[in-house]
Amino acid sequence: MLQTINIHEAKTHLSRLVEQAANGESFIIAKAGKPMVKVVPLDTPEVQAQKRFGFMIGQINVPDDFDRMGSAEIEALFGSTE
Fold first, then answer.
1. Which domains, from first to last, does the chain contain?
2. What pLDDT, on a 0 to 100 scale, did the predictor assign at position 25?
3. What is the pLDDT of residues 52-79, one digit of tens each?
4. What is the rounded distance in angstroms from the CA atom of residue 60 to the CA atom of residue 82?
5. Spatial contact of 20 and 44, defined as CB atoms under 8 Å apart
6. What per-residue string of b and e applies to 7-38 under the rule 16 or more CB within 10 Å gives b?
7. What's the confidence (pLDDT) of residue 55?
8. Residues 25-48 pLDDT 10s
9. How many CA atoms lie within 13 A of 46 on its CB side?
């Protein structure tokens, strides 16, 4: 769990806290107990949004006749499409 620092304490000990963050010890600055910001070292990779395209590969099967499914019923309801 990240250390939470009050904003007044962060101002007082900024140099030490920045050094800790640069060494990989991230922390949170809070104001009146409410978290405001997270301080992390610059070389920490940012969390990338997960790509959603193809996330269900192998879990769904689309039949070869997908574009013709129900064509007999549709033709019976609306007549020939040709």
1. 3-39 (3.40.1620.10)
2. 93
3. 788 788 888 888 888 888 888 988 998 7
4. 32
5. no
6. eeebeeeeeebeebbeeeeebebbeeeeeeee
7. 79
8. 999 999 999 999 999 998 766 667
9. 3
Tokens coding 69 = 């499914």
The pair of structure tokens assigned to 11 is 């101002």
- Both tokens of residue 46? 């940012």
pLDDT at 37: 96
